[in-house]
Amino acid sequence: MALASDLNPGTSPVLSLRLMMNLGCTLFRLTPEEALVGVTINAAKALGIDATHGSLEVGKWADAVVWDITGPAELSYWLGGQLPVTVFKAGKEIDV
User: What is the pTM of this model?
Assistant: First the structure.
């Protein structure tokens, strides 16, 4: 299952992928690990870009967020706060 938000004010006024992970866990009974897969590789597969995006592998775009957490459950549990420690876009660290 892919989890995402198109951030469309008319149909999906949601900015937070972490909220989508929370909804995946609570509404669809996904585990936090399954929800994380849903917003990464499965989302990339749904868009047809999984050959270049969606997981950290050699040869793929290095887009990643580093969080100060102990495991995936914290991403889908906390609905506020927990700003990213570091963000990488195309392999380069960007300001957050």
Answer: 0.87
